[in-house]
Structures are given as C-alpha cells and as structure tokens.
Amino acid sequence: MGHDVKLLTPESVRPFAKAQKNDWNDALAIAEAAQRPGRHAVGIKSNEQLDMQALHRVRQRLVVARTSIINQLRGLLRERGLVIP
C-alpha cells in the first residue's frame, strides 16, 4: 500500500501519551511521535537475532529458576539443622 514501516522506541513515544492508557490514545501518541522531526527509527531485527534473543531469555529464566530452587532447598535443610554455606 506504499506505507513506510518504522519502529519507534517507547522512550520517544512516551512524552506524547495521554492520561488514559488505552489503544486509541496509544495510537495517537505513536502517530504524533512519528510525525515529529528528529525521531529516529529503530532497525528491524533479523530472524537470527530474534532467535538468539529468545535463546538468551530462556537461558536466563532457567538460571533464575535454578537459583530459586537451590535457595529453597538450602532453607528447608536449614530448618532441619543442616547448614550449607
């Protein structure tokens, strides 16, 4: 349809947001920010970059879950009198 797609950062759109948070006001804020000069667009990520980002996020969740389980186990053992540094 001849449209130029641009991705804007949330930081560049936030000053134009209205008081009520809804889709209509968000669309108005995005349209307002897109028309202002000096707002640079963000590059679109490739599929490989998106895959790598997803992999890092999954790995981070696994690390957080592992740490949580270890701390819970240490707490349960401490209640039984077995202290592990």
Describe the structure.
This protein has three helices and no strands. The chain folds into two domains: 1-43, no CATH class; 45-85, no CATH class. The chain is elongated and about 70 Å long. The longest helix is centred in the C-terminal third of the chain and has 33 residues, at 47-79. By secondary structure, it is mainly α.
* Percent range for β-strand residues: under 5%
Order of secondary-structure elements: HHH
Estimate the mean pLDDT confidence. 92
Q: Whole-number radius of gyration?
A: 23 Å
Largest sheet: none
Low-confidence stretches: none
Instruction: Quickly give the structural class.
Output: mainly alpha
Helix content: 55-70%
Taken from the alpha-carbon principal axes, the silhouette is: elongated
Q: State the assembly state of the protein chains.
A: single chain
**Helix count, DSSP H or I runs of 4 or more residues:** 3
End-to-end Cα distance, whole Å, is 64 Å
Number of DSSP E strands: 0
What is the number of independent domains? 2
